[in-house]
Amino acid sequence: MWKKLLATSNSLPLAILRVTLGIVMFPHGAQKMLGWFGGYGFSGTMAFFTKMMHIPAPLAFLAIAAEFFGGIGLVLGFLTRVWAFGIGINMLVAVAMVHRNFGFFINWNGAQKGEGFEYHLLVLAIAAFLLIKGAGAFSLDRVLTVSASGTAGAGVALMTKNNRVDAPHLPISLDF
Description:
Layout: H1 2-6, H2 12-34, H3 41-52, H4 57-76, H5 80-97, H6 118-133, H7 140-148, E1 158-159, E2 165-166
Antiparallel strand pairs: 1-2
Protein backbone atom coordinates (compact mmCIF):
# COMPACT_ATOMS: atom_id res chain seq x y z
CA MET A 1 0.00 0.00 0.00
CA TRP A 2 2.74 2.49 0.96
CA LYS A 3 4.65 1.79 -2.22
CA LYS A 4 1.62 2.64 -4.38
CA LEU A 5 0.86 5.73 -2.30
CA LEU A 6 4.39 7.10 -2.68
CA ALA A 7 5.18 5.87 -6.20
CA THR A 8 6.09 8.61 -8.64
CA SER A 9 8.17 9.32 -11.70
CA ASN A 10 11.28 11.48 -11.81
CA SER A 11 9.33 14.25 -13.55
CA LEU A 12 10.60 17.83 -13.23
CA PRO A 13 7.25 19.38 -14.30
CA LEU A 14 5.49 17.44 -11.51
CA ALA A 15 8.06 18.72 -9.03
CA ILE A 16 7.46 22.30 -10.19
CA LEU A 17 3.68 21.93 -9.77
CA ARG A 18 4.08 20.28 -6.37
CA VAL A 19 6.52 22.81 -4.92
CA THR A 20 4.56 25.75 -6.29
CA LEU A 21 1.31 24.50 -4.78
CA GLY A 22 3.10 23.89 -1.47
CA ILE A 23 4.54 27.41 -1.47
CA VAL A 24 1.10 28.88 -2.23
CA MET A 25 -0.74 26.78 0.37
CA PHE A 26 1.72 27.17 3.26
CA PRO A 27 1.00 30.87 3.97
CA HIS A 28 -2.75 30.16 3.96
CA GLY A 29 -2.19 27.35 6.45
CA ALA A 30 0.21 29.48 8.52
CA GLN A 31 -2.49 32.16 8.79
CA LYS A 32 -4.90 29.60 10.19
CA MET A 33 -2.46 27.57 12.32
CA LEU A 34 0.02 30.19 13.59
CA GLY A 35 -1.61 33.57 13.02
CA TRP A 36 1.11 34.57 10.56
CA PHE A 37 0.48 36.85 7.56
CA GLY A 38 -2.47 38.58 9.23
CA GLY A 39 -4.30 35.38 10.15
CA TYR A 40 -6.25 34.61 13.32
CA GLY A 41 -4.23 31.61 14.43
CA PHE A 42 -5.51 28.20 15.40
CA SER A 43 -8.04 29.14 18.09
CA GLY A 44 -9.43 32.09 16.13
CA THR A 45 -9.79 30.05 12.96
CA MET A 46 -11.35 27.12 14.81
CA ALA A 47 -13.85 29.49 16.42
CA PHE A 48 -14.72 31.05 13.05
CA PHE A 49 -15.10 27.68 11.32
CA THR A 50 -17.17 26.08 14.09
CA LYS A 51 -19.29 29.01 15.31
CA MET A 52 -19.75 31.18 12.23
CA MET A 53 -19.62 28.57 9.48
CA HIS A 54 -21.00 25.67 11.57
CA ILE A 55 -18.28 23.28 10.45
CA PRO A 56 -17.81 20.37 12.89
CA ALA A 57 -14.59 20.77 14.90
CA PRO A 58 -12.86 17.62 13.52
CA LEU A 59 -13.45 18.81 9.95
CA ALA A 60 -12.32 22.35 10.80
CA PHE A 61 -9.11 20.91 12.25
CA LEU A 62 -8.56 18.81 9.10
CA ALA A 63 -9.02 21.90 6.92
CA ILE A 64 -6.37 23.80 8.87
CA ALA A 65 -4.02 20.79 8.88
CA ALA A 66 -4.45 20.22 5.14
CA GLU A 67 -3.30 23.75 4.33
CA PHE A 68 -0.52 24.04 6.91
CA PHE A 69 0.99 20.54 6.97
CA GLY A 70 -0.04 19.99 3.35
CA GLY A 71 1.96 23.02 2.25
CA ILE A 72 5.04 21.71 4.06
CA GLY A 73 4.46 18.15 2.83
CA LEU A 74 4.14 19.28 -0.78
CA VAL A 75 7.32 21.35 -0.68
CA LEU A 76 9.19 18.32 0.69
CA GLY A 77 7.33 15.91 -1.56
CA PHE A 78 6.33 13.76 1.42
CA LEU A 79 2.96 11.98 1.28
CA THR A 80 2.12 14.10 -1.74
CA ARG A 81 -1.04 12.22 -2.67
CA VAL A 82 -2.42 12.50 0.87
CA TRP A 83 -1.83 16.24 1.03
CA ALA A 84 -3.09 16.81 -2.52
CA PHE A 85 -6.30 14.98 -1.58
CA GLY A 86 -6.73 17.07 1.57
CA ILE A 87 -6.11 20.35 -0.24
CA GLY A 88 -8.47 19.30 -3.05
CA ILE A 89 -11.25 18.56 -0.56
CA ASN A 90 -10.54 21.92 1.11
CA MET A 91 -11.00 23.69 -2.21
CA LEU A 92 -14.23 21.83 -3.02
CA VAL A 93 -15.70 22.75 0.36
CA ALA A 94 -14.55 26.38 0.06
CA VAL A 95 -16.22 26.70 -3.34
CA ALA A 96 -19.42 24.95 -2.26
CA MET A 97 -19.80 26.82 1.03
CA VAL A 98 -18.48 30.29 0.23
CA HIS A 99 -16.93 31.26 -3.07
CA ARG A 100 -19.51 30.06 -5.61
CA ASN A 101 -21.80 32.82 -4.33
CA PHE A 102 -19.39 35.45 -5.64
CA GLY A 103 -19.01 34.19 -9.19
CA PHE A 104 -15.95 33.05 -11.08
CA PHE A 105 -13.46 35.91 -10.80
CA ILE A 106 -11.09 36.87 -8.03
CA ASN A 107 -12.04 40.24 -6.54
CA TRP A 108 -9.16 42.24 -8.02
CA ASN A 109 -10.73 45.69 -7.67
CA GLY A 110 -12.82 45.20 -4.53
CA ALA A 111 -16.00 45.56 -6.58
CA GLN A 112 -17.67 42.40 -5.24
CA LYS A 113 -18.48 41.33 -1.68
CA GLY A 114 -16.16 38.31 -1.75
CA GLU A 115 -13.75 36.27 -3.81
CA GLY A 116 -14.84 34.13 -6.75
CA PHE A 117 -13.68 30.57 -7.26
CA GLU A 118 -11.11 30.80 -10.09
CA TYR A 119 -8.17 30.41 -7.66
CA HIS A 120 -9.83 27.39 -6.07
CA LEU A 121 -10.41 25.81 -9.46
CA LEU A 122 -6.72 26.12 -10.33
CA VAL A 123 -5.66 24.66 -6.98
CA LEU A 124 -8.17 21.85 -7.39
CA ALA A 125 -6.79 21.00 -10.84
CA ILE A 126 -3.19 20.96 -9.59
CA ALA A 127 -4.15 18.87 -6.55
CA ALA A 128 -6.01 16.38 -8.74
CA PHE A 129 -3.01 16.08 -11.06
CA LEU A 130 -0.66 15.44 -8.13
CA LEU A 131 -3.10 12.93 -6.67
CA ILE A 132 -3.03 11.01 -9.94
CA LYS A 133 0.68 11.31 -10.86
CA GLY A 134 2.48 11.72 -7.53
CA ALA A 135 5.27 14.01 -6.35
CA GLY A 136 7.77 13.87 -9.21
CA ALA A 137 11.48 14.60 -8.96
CA PHE A 138 13.28 15.87 -5.86
CA SER A 139 10.68 14.43 -3.50
CA LEU A 140 10.90 12.34 -0.37
CA ASP A 141 8.23 10.11 -1.88
CA ARG A 142 10.58 9.31 -4.76
CA VAL A 143 13.58 8.80 -2.51
CA LEU A 144 11.62 6.41 -0.29
CA THR A 145 10.17 4.35 -3.13
CA VAL A 146 13.34 4.21 -5.22
CA SER A 147 15.44 3.38 -2.15
CA ALA A 148 13.00 0.62 -1.19
CA SER A 149 13.48 -0.94 -4.61
CA GLY A 150 17.23 -1.22 -4.01
CA THR A 151 18.48 1.62 -6.22
CA ALA A 152 19.65 5.08 -5.24
CA GLY A 153 16.99 7.72 -4.79
CA ALA A 154 16.66 11.06 -6.55
CA GLY A 155 19.52 13.36 -5.71
CA VAL A 156 21.56 10.63 -4.01
CA ALA A 157 25.17 10.32 -5.09
CA LEU A 158 27.16 7.10 -4.88
CA MET A 159 30.87 6.83 -4.22
CA THR A 160 32.66 4.59 -6.70
CA LYS A 161 35.85 2.58 -6.13
CA ASN A 162 37.92 5.51 -7.42
CA ASN A 163 36.38 7.90 -4.84
CA ARG A 164 34.47 9.67 -7.59
CA VAL A 165 30.97 10.87 -6.98
CA ASP A 166 28.71 9.07 -9.41
CA ALA A 167 25.11 10.18 -9.81
CA PRO A 168 22.57 7.39 -10.14
CA HIS A 169 21.31 6.61 -13.60
CA LEU A 170 17.91 8.16 -13.03
CA PRO A 171 17.63 11.04 -15.47
CA ILE A 172 15.25 13.84 -14.65
CA SER A 173 12.25 13.61 -16.95
CA LEU A 174 10.52 16.57 -18.56
CA ASP A 175 7.44 14.40 -19.13
CA PHE A 176 4.40 14.46 -16.93
